[in-house]
Amino acid sequence: MLMVVFYHLKFPGFKHGYVGVDIFFLLSGYLMCQSLSSKALLTGKEIALFYWNRFTRLIPAFSVFIILSWVIIWLLIGVKLYDFSKNVLISQLFLSNIYYYLSINYFSSSSELNFLIHTWSLSVEWQFYIVFPLLIYLQHRFLNNKFKFNQLLIIFLLLLSLVLFLLISRIDQPFAFYLPFCRLWEFLLGALVYSQRDLFHKLSDKIAFRIANFALFLFFLLFPLFNFYLLSDWSPLLIMVVLLLISVILLLQLNYKFVSFPSIQFVARISYSWYLWHWFIIVIFNYFFPNQNLMHKITVLIISAGIAYSSYACIEFQPYLRKKYSLICLFFITILLTGFNTKKEIVQWVIGQKRRDFFDFYFEYPRTIMPFKEQFGKNHLLSRNDLSSFDFNSLYKLQEGKKNYLLIGDCHAGMF
What we know:
The protein is mainly alpha-helical. It is 68% helix and 0% strand.
């Protein structure tokens, strides 16, 4: 969790801190496998109970986060209510990874003003939660025996997903980054590690600790090297290396004393709420403090950690919020609250008369004013459009007696 927070805060040495999300995917696969393997018999009822437990674990904090965020945006940046509400609906359907694949590059500067872009990983997680238990259930039905993991099936799907991940990352990096087909191998690696947890049980503690310490040493050695030498924003190679090292440590099943330190336990307990809130606070600061220094970042760190602890203590495990009817009501309240605000007229009414003119300009500029001004499709080719859609005839309108220039470049060139 700290790796992701430090990465988003752009602390030196954490250029590739995004691998914290990949480690989270690995651990999710490990813990899911552990949870499902505790069932003597995996039935449809057991799967439904698993889904409900996941729902009650994640939705309360997420819903309260959405409601409070909506209020904060309404108070501070009312013109963003429309975009925020639209993204909430996508996030609550756990489809934000697909939506952002089609609309925004995670590593582009525009993503730094998107309040909910970090929910892409929660969507990927939920998609795995839905598919994997069903896969195991179908396997159980066809094998007609007590629940067990078919390791050959896991290995086959893991390798298939890994190959797709490596190939597609060279062709379409956003596809490999956002979509579950290319992320499945990370969850399955965690599941495979759990199923092979007794692989090294005959090793003495001394040897096991030496191997694990060497893996930790490689991790702390290679991570700074990758930060220094890798120029790309995202490295599939780094992800593979880190997850393999973490897998080795998990296979050895060692009890490190530092894991029980109060500070480590504190971060572990608030990690989910911290993940929800930290990026929202960062974006708020991006709007109001575009030129941030170290004190701004430390302030964000403290504020987000404080809110995360409050969310953990007051929301995540409150019995009344995990009851069936209150949970369903909370979920639908957030959908209704944000769903209404995907209508322009409602947003105009909510933000009030004083901010309405600015909202109208903000709303219309990218939809009507900018396409006309920049001549999209004529003088300006959008990145998501194929070159064949460009109006080449407009390039050949030469003026006699004058020097004619063809300017090729990015969106800044299109403005001339």
